[in-house]
């Protein structure tokens, strides 16, 4: 009788694992499709639809390995659309991750959006200082990457 119980429990456990793996695989597939769709729109320079699709990806999969890249891409799209407040929000997230592949570029475009906001409103002149700080971060990240390349290693970001 105990053997039957242990066998049943083991079979149930295996079925549960298979079901969980199947759901996980399906979720990963859906995430990949959504991310690839957003990336295609980005490459086509369809900034509005790319920003919306990256936003959908971020909402659905906030902890996905591509979420940081999605924040960078959506921020860049907003920068291109001259929606600089939105760009700043995403680019700050992407630029804050030290050592990420996107941190250098994110800080550069963060600086550009902050500069645009400062130029648009005299009340936002403090944004110039923030822009300078973002450009400084970009320069530091790129300088560190160049040192890494000079040492014969592959940098995390450029």
Note down, in words, how this protein is organized.
With about 160 residues, the chain is mainly α. The chain has a single domain (about 1-150), classed as Serine Threonine Protein Phosphatase 5, Tetratricopeptide repeat (Alpha Horseshoe), CATH 1.25.40. It has helices at about 1-45, 45-60, 65-80, 85-95, 105-120, 125-150. Helix 2 packs antiparallel against helix 3. The termini are far apart. The relative contact order is 0.08.
The helix tally amounts to 6
Portion in strands: under 5%
SSE topology string: HHHHHH
Number of strands: 0
Give the overall form: globular
User: Rg, please?
Assistant: 22 Å
CATH class: Mainly Alpha
Taking the sheet with the most strands, its summary is: none
CATH architectural label: Alpha Horseshoe
CATH homologous superfamily classification: Tetratricopeptide repeat domain
Give the tally of structural domains: 1
Secondary-structure-derived class = mainly alpha
Average pLDDT score: 87
> Termini separation (Å)?
64 Å
- Helical content band: over 70%
**CATH-derived topology:** Serine Threonine Protein Phosphatase 5, Tetratricopeptide repeat
Low-confidence runs: 1-9
């Amino acid at each position: 009788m105990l053997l039957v119980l242990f066998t049943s429990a083991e079979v149930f456990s295996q079925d549960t694992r298979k079901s969980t793996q199947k759901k996980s695989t399906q979720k990963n597939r859906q995430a990949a499709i959504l991310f690839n769709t957003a990336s295609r729109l980005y490459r086509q320079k369809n900034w509005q639809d790319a920003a919306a699709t990256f936003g959908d990806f971020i909402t659905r999969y906030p902890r996905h390995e591509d979420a940081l890249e999605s924040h960078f891409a959506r921020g860049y799209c907003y920068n291109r659309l001259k929606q600089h407040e939105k760009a700043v929000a995403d680019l700050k997230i992407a630029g804050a991750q030290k050592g990420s592949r996107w941190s250098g570029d994110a800080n550069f475009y963060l600086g550009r959006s902050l500069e645009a906001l400062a130029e648009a409103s005299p009340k936002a002149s403090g944004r110039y200082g923030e822009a300078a700080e973002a450009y400084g971060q970009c320069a530091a990240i790129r300088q560190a990457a160049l040192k890494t390349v000079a040492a014969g290693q592959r940098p995390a970001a450029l």
